[in-house]
Specification:
With about 425 residues, the chain is an alpha+beta fold. The chain has 3 domains: about 80 residues, Immunoglobulins (Immunoglobulin-like); about 170 residues, Sandwich (Immunoglobulin-like); about 130 residues, no CATH class. About 20% of the residues lie in helices and about 35% in strands. It contains 6 helices and 24 strands. The strands form 6 sheets. An 8-stranded mixed beta sheet has the order 15-14-18-11-10-20-23-22. Strands 1, 2, 5 and 8 form a 4-stranded mixed beta sheet that branches. α2 packs parallel to α4.
Length: about 425
């Protein structure tokens, strides 16, 4: 037996080596078009929340290698000049490529595509959401980052309920705006990477039946939008250039738009009355679930869509979902996706941004099974998309729905320390 022991050990080592997976990749600098040599690269395991599994540096050619000790989902994070960039590595992934960008404190190529203020009122409380779609089209592409990276105002007396940020291709994450010295002025300390970044802040405030609002826009907007229930009234301030936008597919909404605004341009308005906006995106998804009632041409992305006007081209068609809901989701669509998809192995999914202040950890409770099932569905949805099993439209609708449901479940859990 002793004579065969070395061979047995060698065989076991060979088997272990064969079963171990290797994840390789490259990090390139999108600003210089060169390898991002020396950047930190972190491997994060997602099977138990967000656990750092390994860390290395990109070599002179921007290459990196990780040995995987399991076949679960991973997230690869590259850190360049203090800003993080991420790429998912689902089970079976052998290689990932990341692109980073040089950081500047101030860039000339920052513009606001849409600035949307949504209001509804019940009793003596006014509820509002302000959403920004910010485009970074710097050339060469760079990331803007500073202590007041994107600033805005809220109405006097507003209390922030929740605030989120989302980079193009990523997931919404909590990102709290920082109050500034000037009253009612806030700033996001969140990187504006090349492409589009969205910010959404929800708030509430006392309401006596009428409110005058001065948005005090700090940036020029392609479209500044105010949205109310039709049961409320809108009155434009002096010197403003609002235009009413009507659409038969959003019958309960009053939408006022000022286009191509400039910094300092008057945008003040007064709202009065009470009313609640109907989430027509859920009605649309319910129609999809039943196979009936889906309006032809209806936008089924998160937040729904007004759909194209009947008689004339609509300049806001590109920004419909900003106006209708921002990060709002179609919960019913997520339920439909879960019901239709075959069950698979349980896996957890974590946000694709390290900018989140904390990643929640589940504690044993009655909601644990629901939480685990939601995480499983989200990750399986990513796999289905990569394998081409679902369309991009189906992916966007179901993904947003599942994300929002998961976020609500996680709010009931105690936060785990930030990584």
């Amino acid at each position: 037996m002793k004579r065969f022991l070395p061979y047995l050990l060698a065989l076991l080592a060979l088997i272990a080596s064969a079963s171990a997976q290797t994840l390789t990749g490259t990090v390139s600098n999108g600003t210089t078009k060169k390898p991002a040599s020396g950047d930190d690269v972190v491997l994060i395991k997602l099977s138990q929340g967000m656990e750092e599994a390994a860390r290395t540096k990109a070599d002179s050619q921007g290459n990196f290698t990780f040995k995987l000790d399991d076949n679960g989902p991973h997230l690869v994070r590259a850190i360049h000049q203090g800003v993080t960039y991420h790429k998912m590595a689902p089970p079976g992934t052998a290689s990932v490529d990341l692109q980073v960008f040089d950081v500047s404190k101030k860039l000339a190529g920052i513009s606001v595509t849409a600035d949307v203020m949504r209001f509804q009122a019940q009793g003596n409380e006014l509820q509002g959401i302000r959403l920004f779609a910010v485009d970074n089209h710097s050339d060469p592409p760079r990331t803007q980052m500073n202590d007041q990276n994107f600033e805005f105002y809220l109405p006097d007396g507003a209390s922030v309920d929740q605030s989120m940020a989302m980079t193009a291709g990523g997931q919404p994450i909590n990102s709290a705006p920082v109050p500034q010295k000037e009253k009612n002025r806030y700033a996001y300390v969140f990187p504006l990477r090349p492409g589009e970044t969205q910010f959404q802040v929800s708030f509430h405030m006392p309401y006596s039946g009428q409110l005058s609002v001065d948005p005090k826009a700090l940036y020029g907007d392609q479209h500044f939008v105010v949205m109310l229930p039709k049961s409320m009234q809108f009155s434009a301030g002096a010197g403003t250039s609002f235009q009413s936008m009507k659409d038969p597919r959003q019958s309960d909404a009053l939408v006022q738009v000022a286009s191509n605004t400039r910094v300092g341009q008057p945008l003040a308005f007064t709202i009065s009355g009470t009313g609640v906006l109907t989430d027509e995106s859920q009605e649309a998804s319910a129609g999809q679930a039943g196979g009936q009632g889906q309006v032809a041409g209806r936008d089924s992305r998160p937040g729904g869509g007004l759909g194209p006007p009947i008689d004339a081209p609509d300049p806001l068609e590109k920004y419909r979902w900003y106006i209708l809901g921002g990060f709002g989701v179609v919960l019913a669509a997520g339920a439909v996706y879960i019901a239709k998809r075959p069950r698979g192995a349980i896996a957890e999914f974590a946000p694709s941004h390290a900018d989140a202040s904390a990643a929640p950890r589940a504690n044993p409770s009655r909601s644990t099974l629901l939480l685990e099932a939601l995480k499983e569905e989200i990750f399986q949805l990513e796999i289905d998309r990569k394998q081409g099993h679902i369309s991009q439209q189906e992916y966007e609708t179901a993904k947003a729905a599942l994300d929002q449901t998961l976020e609500r479940a996680l709010k009931r859990k105690a936060p785990k320390p930030a990584i």
